[in-house]
């Protein structure tokens, strides 16, 4: 497939946790203007795991930021769990992000002043709920960090910080978890562990995961792979997925985007 599907089609589907319809995103102005997303329409169905791939600069992070309500698109719409983000004020958008979206991002992931268990409990506390200490400890144990409850992010490795973010998604159960290169800085054993945990969010808890990755092995753990090129959806591979087929398609798109 080259170019987006006709507008309106994805939004007509009812089981989509995330729907982007004709999303356009731009940076800068005048001669420095960059079109990062050029009319992207796509849905991410409830209880599925999608990987987003594409060359550097193709718009993957921008897509994640728009889908998660961190950036407002220049045109088009984004809906999470049936709620259209464009109609929300900043406070309502912040609440929706806190209540329904989980983030496994390397850049702004954990609160540095808080311990692992405080970070895991934070979204629920902000929502006025008091998670049981046993639930928090259980989630950290599930990601292999049962002995790191009182550690702060600076006292944890990159992989351990990613796993704290996943434990947070296990406890607060957001409808959708966005992960931006969650295995980018990890060794292969830790990567596999993090991908197992993301799979478990989908398979055991029915959550939706959207993961940006450059790694065909990581993408092969998803139910589908969406390829971006020049801010557009250039191709899609449905599962079951094999890493070498993903790598071949990615290499093809690098040389001939459409
Ligand atoms: N803050 C910004 N200001 C100006 N241009 C930006 C900004 N952020 C991204 N861009 C541009 O928007 C386009 C898409 O960037 P984006 O970060 O979404 O790509 P990406 O596919 O995630 O890349 P990578 O794989 O290298 O992380 C690129 O051309 C990039 O240079």
TrEMBL record:
Tell me if S-adenosyl-L-methionine is a UniProt keyword of this record: no
Q: Which Pfam families match?
A: ABC_tran
What GO MF terms are annotated?
Answer: ATP binding
- Locate the ABC transporter domain: which residues? 18-255
Which CDD domains does the record associate with it?
Answer: ABC_MJ0796_LolCDE_FtsE
Q: Which InterPro entries match?
A: AAA+_ATPase, ABC_transporter-like_ATP-bd, ABC_transporter-like_CS, ABC_transpr_LolD-like, MacB-like_ATP-bd, P-loop_NTPase
- Signal sequence: where? none
Task: List UniProt keywords, sorted A-Z.
Answer: ATP-binding, Nucleotide-binding, Transport
Q: What is this protein called?
A: ABC transporter ATP-binding protein
Q: What is the organism of origin for this protein?
A: Dactylosporangium salmoneum
């Amino acid at each position: 497939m080259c170019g987006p599907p006709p507008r309106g089609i994805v939004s007509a589907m009812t089981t989509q946790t995330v729907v982007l319809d004709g999303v356009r995103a731009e940076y800068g102005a005048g001669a420095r203007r960059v079109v990062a997303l050029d009319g992207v329409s796509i849905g991410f169905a409830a209880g599925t795991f999608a990987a987003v791939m594409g060359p550097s600069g193709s718009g993957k992070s921008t897509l994640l930021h728009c889908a998660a309500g961190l950036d407002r698109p220049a045109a088009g719409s984004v809906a999470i769990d049936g709620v259209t983000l464009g109609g929300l004020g900043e406070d309502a958008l912040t609440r929706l992000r806190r209540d329904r979206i989980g983030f496994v991002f390397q850049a702004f992931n954990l609160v540095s002043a808080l311990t692992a268990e405080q970070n895991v409990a934070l979204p629920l506390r902000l929502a006025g709920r008091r998670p049981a200490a046993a639930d928090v400890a259980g989630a950290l144990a599930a990601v292999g960090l049962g002995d790191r409850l009182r550690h702060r992010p600076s006292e944890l490795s990159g992989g351990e910080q990613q796993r704290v973010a996943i434990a947070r998604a296990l406890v607060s159960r957001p409808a959708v978890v966005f992960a931006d290169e969650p295995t980018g800085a990890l060794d292969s054993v830790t990567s596999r562990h993090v991908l197992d945990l993301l799979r478990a969010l989908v398979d055991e808890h029915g959550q939706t995961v959207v993961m940006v990755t450059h790694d065909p092995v990581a993408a092969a753990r998803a139910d589908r792979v969406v390829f971006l090129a020049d801010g557009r959806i250039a191709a899609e591979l449905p599962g079951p997925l094999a890493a070498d087929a993903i790598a071949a398609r990615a290499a093809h798109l690098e040389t001939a985007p459409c």
